[in-house]
Fold each of these.
Amino acid sequence: KKFEKTYGEDYANPDYKGKTITLIVNVTEVKERQLPEVDDEFAQDVKEEYHTVEDMKNAIKANLQKEVDEMVDNAKKDAIIEKLNESVNFAVPASMVDFELESSWRDYVRQTGLSEDQILNYFKQSGMTKESFTEGWREPATKNLKNQLILEAIQKKENFEVDEAALEEELKKNIKEDTDESTKEYYRNVLRDNMQYAKVFPFLIENNNL
């Protein structure tokens, strides 16, 4: 089969930009997918807990609804924190930004699988420095830190109540029974702080007019 393909003026490859070429395709094999019949037996093969097609459909629908709800929640969170970021003016300490950049740099080095010296040597040959390479990270890092500080301030101001029984249950999952009391108290405070912080966004979503 012969057909023509036209590439736009913004096509990345300059050899094809704005050009029309002729393509010749030879079909060497044709396959057809044989789909199984969607019945109760098929549903049971998909997952053990599915006994009928209806079970499978309901589960798929529930999962899709959960994904949609999470997308909506995330969109609300992004809109709220963006509005808060615009409304609250304060300078994020430079030392915090520098620490965040250094942490991101260490993550980057680890992900490359190279040593820091190897990367810096490559930068030197390319006319770059560590500072020039990470400078583009500064603005988003500053914004993220500002968001975090705002959320932590809301957490502190509201001082959300924590279910003590749930806290103790979570503590048991994270430490050994023979852990000394001072260590337990440390982890108890960490968990309480995490549980309070987890209540910030639900509180913001409930109390906003976006």
Amino acid sequence: YMKITWHGQSCFKLLVKSNTGEKITILIDPFDKEIGLTPPRGNADIVLITHNHRDHNNLKTVSGEPFVINGPGEYDVKGVSIKGVYSYHDDSKGSERGINTIYIIGVEDMKVCHLGDLGQKELADMQLDKIGEIDILMVPVGGIYTINDEEAVKIINQIEPSVVIPMHYKIDGVNIKLEKIDNVLKEVGVEPETTQDYTVKKLDLGENMKVVVMKPE
């Protein structure tokens, strides 16, 4: 099984068992306390950084000696396969906010896709080919700096995951201007499941898409 914890913004911690049977902690997009939330603490084996903004790249908060990935490419780390796909942080080919890496993590017979601060209104065919079939999709929905609710739904429909976990939206404490989650939940039209930690295994994934709204740790 895979245990997913959300710390707010785009920061997730994944506790997984690697292909070699080892327990691995993967941390994605740790943020700086300046955004108003408490950064995640503790060890990580692998850290993924989608782009170099302070609400995504606070490596100082991570202890241990993690393997850090901060760009496109294919990696095999500690029995976990990770693919970084080049994308844009805006809808004008990166001219406003630069580039962003989409990560696909393959472990526990599942594929997790974290879209980072995607700003493209839709994904190109080449990006979709690289992303492939996805079980769990972490998608930004707060607009302003990333895709908004309507664009998020379009991208969810392009990828067709089994589970959607919204991220990067306005929650208590965040001092960055973002939209709330309400609009995207209306747009998706699926009754969400709300949880603190999300523990999932491949067998739990059904035909119908689920939306999981996570409470931050």
